[in-house]
Description:
2 domains
Amino acid sequence: MPTTSRRSLVEIVNASKVTAAESDAAQARAQLEAERRAHAETVKALERSRFAKAPKKITPATSKAGTGDIVEVIFSDVHGNKHDPAAMAALLGDLKTLSPDRIIIGGDFIDCGGFLAEHHTLGYVAETEDSYEDDVAVSNSLLDQILHAASPKEAHYIEGNHEWRVERWALTQRLAHHKDVDLLRRTFCPEHVLRLKDRGIRYYRQGQMHGDCDTPGWVKFDKAFFVHKISNARDAAGQAMAKAAANIVFFDTHRAAFKPMHLPGVGLISAWNPGCLCKRQPLYANTRPTEWTHGYLVRFISRRTGNFQMTNITINEGTSYASLLLKSKAP
Ligand SMILES: [Fe+2]
Ligand SMILES: [Fe+2]
C-alpha cells in the first residue's frame, strides 16, 4: 500500500475518533440537561404539593374528657402512600373518641420509597411506581385528618429510618457547598415537605441528642423512652429492655409487642411496640408472610405521680378492638 494511502487511513481513523468523542460529549450534555429538567420538574411538583393549601395546625380542645390524667396516643409506621386505609380509618375513629392530650408518631410516617436502596427485589421495583410527590401529598392529607380527629395539645414525631434516608441522600449528593445540601434538605426532607413546624409538630432527628437522653434519637416522655429502631430480633421487646433497663417504646418491626419484667435493681419495667398502620404485605417481601400487625398504644398518665397505664390496641381487618368499649364510655 502506498504511504499516502496509509496516511489517509490514519487520518480517517483519527477523524472518526474525534466524531465519536464529540457525539459522546453531546449525548452526555443532553443527558445532563434532561436530568436538570427532571430535577426542576420534581422540585416544582413538590412545591405545588406543599403549598397547595395551608396545613392543618394543632388546635387544642379547650377541655379534655376524663379525670385530669394525660391521655396519650402513640402510633407508627404508616408509610405514607403505602398506608392501610381501613387501619387508618380505625385509628382516626378512636382518636376522635379519645381526644388525646398528646400524640406521638414513632417514625416511618412517610414511606420515601424511592430513597431506599436496600430493597432491589422485583416487587420493590414495581413499588417504585409510587412517586415521592404522591407519598408527600398522601402523608400531608393523613396528618391533616389525624390532627383534626385528635385535636391534641401537643404532637411529637420521631424520625424513622425511612425519613432519615432522605436526609442521608441530601447529604451525600456531592455538591460543593453546605448551602446546597441545606437547599436539598429544605426541598425534599420529610420534616419540611410535611411542614411539621407550621403544624406545631416537634420533630426528633435520629442523629441528634434530645433532652437529657444520652443516646442519639432517643426521647423521654413521662417515665418512658421512645426510639424508632432498636432491634430486629424475634424477641425485640426483650432486647429493647435489655438495652434500655427502663420503660421503652420502640417501633420499626411492625409487630405489636408488650413485655413486662421485674428486675431487682430497677423494679417493674416494660417494653411496648404498637405495630404498624401500613399495608401488611408489601411487594418487596415477595412470598414471605410478614407477620406484621396493625394497632396503636394508648397511655393514661397520672399528672400527680407520673405513673401510667400503657395498653396495646389491636386493629384487625380495619376494626379497632377498643372502639366498642370507647364508644360505650364516651359522654
Ligand atoms: Fe416501618
Ligand atoms: Fe423503620
